[in-house]
Each structure stands twice: as structure tokens, then as C-alpha cells.
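### Sample
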Amino acid sequence: MALHAAVKGKLISVIGDEDTCVGFLLGGIGEINKNRHPNFMVVDKNTPVSEIEECFKRFVKRDDIDIILINQNVAELVRHVIDAHTAPVPSVLEIPSKDHPYDASKDSILRRAKGMFNPEDLVR
């Protein structure tokens, strides 16, 4: 019988408005790594775009994060950085916020995924 080492789970990170972050934190996703860096960032109207970019890049570099959730309206501010991220992990998912509904036409990840498939291949 082989012994299997326990694999430490990976994290979900969140970049979004206060309501989004609080909701996910209440759901239990909040973590602080050994360097005392949290896996979430609360963005408000006064948050500089450069700070959002740096946070996104930091989350991408962390090996303990597998999914980055980002409010779509925040993603629009750093679209060039998100579009430059082409690796499958961490996956980037754009989510709606309370004040901004989801718009599939603005989701670059969804557009990229649609480009991978030919619609005729999906029809039987």
C-alpha cells in the first residue's frame, strides 16, 4: 500500500469592491500567507490603477493561488494586464458586482475561450 503525501490546497483570491470581498471572506476564502500578504484586495473609487495592477501581478506570481476572481468593472481598469496573462493557472474569472452587472462582451477570457472552439464542432 503506497502512502500519499497530503497536498496542500490552493487558494482563491479576490480583487473587487468591498461588498464582493466581504461576501467571499464570509464564505471562508480569506488567507494570509507566510509573508503576511492577504489573498484579497478591496478596491474603491480612490484606489490607484497601478495598485490594482501590482496586486494582480502579485497574485499571478503566487504559487498558492489557483483562481483569481475580479469584478468586471475593476478588470476593465487593468484589461491590458489581464490580457497579457495567458497561463491557464491561475485562472482569471471576471464576476459581476452589486452595482455593475456582468457583460459577456467585455470579458476577454470568455472571448479567448470562444475563439478556441468552432461552433459547428459543438452541434451534433
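The longest helix spans residues 49-61. This sample (V-type proton ATPase subunit F) is used throughout the tutorial notebook.
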